[in-house]
Amino acid sequence: MTVDTGDVSVKTKNMSNLIYKYMRPEHLPQIWCPGCGNGIIMRDIAQAIENLGLSRNSTVIVSGIGCSARAAGYMDFNTIHTTHGRAIAFATGIKLANPSLEVIVVTGDGDISAIGGNHLIHAARRNIGLTVVVMNNNIYGMTGGQYSPTTPTGAFGTTAPYGNLDRSFDIAGLAYGAGASYAARGSAYHVQQTTTLIQEGIKHRGFSIIDVASICPTYYGRKNKKGSAVDMLKWQRDNSVTVDQAAKMSQEELKGKLVIGLLHQVNYPEFTYAYDQLIRRLFEEREENE
Amino acid sequence: MKKVLMINQSWCKGCGICAAFCPKGALEIVDDKVQRKEGTECILCGQCELRCPDYAIYIDENEGDTDQWAKSY
Ligand SMILES: Cc1ncc(C[n+]2csc(CCOP(=O)(O)OP(=O)(O)O)c2C)c(N)n1
Ligand code: SF4
Ligand code: SF4
Ligand code: SF4
Hints:
The complex is a heterodimer.
Chain A: E1 2-4, E2 9-11, H1 17-22, H2 38-52, E3 59-63, H3 71-74, E4 78-81, H4 87-97, E5 102-108, H5 109-115, H6 117-126, E6 130-136, E7 139-140, E8 146-147, H7 171-177, E9 182-187, H8 191-203, E10 208-213, H9 217-223, H10 229-239, E11 240-242, H11 243-247, H12 251-254, E12 258-265, H13 271-289
Parallel strand pairs in A: 3-4, 3-5, 5-6, 6-10, 9-10, 11-12
Antiparallel strand pairs in A: 1-2, 7-8, 9-12
Helix pairs in contact in A: 2-8, 5-6
Chain B: E1 2-7, H1 17-21, E2 27-30, E3 33-36, H2 47-51, E4 57-62, E5 70-71
Parallel strand pairs in B: 1-5
Antiparallel strand pairs in B: 1-4, 2-3
The structure holds thiamine diphosphate (TPP) and iron/sulfur cluster (3 copies).
C-alpha cells in the first residue's frame, strides 16, 4: 500500500522485504487469475536480482503484450510495456544505447515464439546481452485461450476445439538452435532451481533465455481438464526430470516429461561488446590515417 | 528477532497452492482466503511464500508481536 505524503509516495509494509523492495505494491494484487503461475515466476526474477545485488536503477524490465507482459507494470525498475511480439526489439535498442544496463525481457510463449519469433531467433543469432524469461503457459491467455506455438499436439484451445494438429515448439531449443549462448528451462513449481537458472542467465554475457513452464488454470487448465492450479503444479512436480536424468533416458521415456535445468551454455562475443570493438577499431584507423 | 508467518488476506485469492505444498498441513482455505489451521504446527520453512503467486503469505523477521504464529490484516 502506498501512503500519499504529498510529494513522495512512501511504501508501508504488509509484504515481504523482497516484494517491498522490487514490486509496486500500489498495483498489487495482480490482475492475474487465482493460481496463475506468472506471479511465482515474477517473484523468481525478483529473487534472482536480489541474489545478484543488481541496482534497480541499472536494471530494465521490458515486456510485450499478454498476461505475462503485465509483469512490467508490477516490477519496480525502469520498465517498459511495449507492443505484441516486439519486446526484444525495444530491449535491443535499450541495450545498444547503454550496454551497461541489465536488460531483462519478460514474455509469453505467444509473444516470443509466434508474433515475436523472428525477433527471438535473430537476437539469439546476434548474441546480444539480453536475458529473456518466458512465462510459458502453452496458450494465449490474455485473449481467451487460443492455441499457441507451444500448445502440445492434440491439446485443446478455443481455436483448436478438436485438438491441435501442429507440433509444438521447444522455445529454449529453438533459441539455442538459432545461436543463443545460454538456454535453460525451469518451472513454476521448481522455485529455487528456476531462480538460480534466471540468476545465471543474467550473469551470462550474451543472449540468455530461460523458458519457464507456467500454469494457466483458467484457459489451458480448463480446456484440457488439467484440474486446479494445485493439480497443475503437482503435474510439474511429478513429471519433471533434470537435464542429467534426461541424458540417460530414451526418446520414448522422455515423452510428456518436462526437462529442467541448464540445457546449453557457450561463450562467444556478445553483440554490444563486438560493436564497441568495431567502433574503437575504426576510430584508431582514422587517427592513423590522419 | 524472531521469525513470524504473516498472512495478508486482502491479497489472497484462495488458490490453495500454499496449503497444498505446506509440509505440515498448517494452512487451510476458508471462504476463499488462507488461514492457519488450528491444532497444526508451522515450522516457518517458507515453502508457502515461495509459491504464493500473490505474495499474500510470507515469513517476516519482526521485533514486535512475535508470540503469534500468524498475523492477519
Ligand atoms: C499486433 C497484435 N496482435 C494481436 C494482439 C492480441 N493479443 C494480445 S495478447 C495475445 C497473445 C498473448 O499470448 P502469450 O504471449 O502466450 O501471453 P499470455 O497472455 O498467455 O501470457 C494476442 C494475440 C495484439 N495485442 N497485438
Ligand atoms: S488467463 Fe491464464 S495466464 Fe492469464 S492471468 Fe489467467 S491464469 Fe494467468
Ligand atoms: S512456513 Fe512452512 S510450515 Fe509454515 S505454513 Fe508455510 S509452508 Fe507451512
Ligand atoms: S498461495 Fe497465496 S493466494 Fe493462494 S491461497 Fe495461499 S496465500 Fe492465498
